[in-house]
Amino acid sequence: MKVDSSLVSNTISSAVVQEKGQAETDAFKKKLEAAASSKDHEKLKEASQEFEAYFIQTLFKEMRKTIQEGGLTEKSQARTTFEEMLDEEMSKSISKNSGIGLADMIYDNMLRVYASNVDEEEKIDKNQSGIDISG
Length: 135
Hints:
Elements: H1 5-38, H2 41-65, H3 77-96, H4 102-128
């Protein structure tokens, strides 16, 4: 049985992409948790923008898949790498400037979630200190 080198290369590339995606997801989660625990609004905004950039980059990647092969030059590994880097930088730029609104929604939602968590913690602290907060 003959093993096609492009099949092996595609399989390895797919595994690397999945591992990279999982690592980026874990990094976003850690960054959000760190921003929440430190109550740093700037870090929370930055993490929201990074997630939006990742989302936009994923959109670009999926849109590129719909483009038919062909044209003036053949698709090479160098061209693929360049397009991935271009998409990453464009998505970061879009997110840092005006974005698509996703970062703002995430930021606002996280502020509400963390504000409600802080309120709950304050109620628990007051109850433990013997202060009547029932009204």
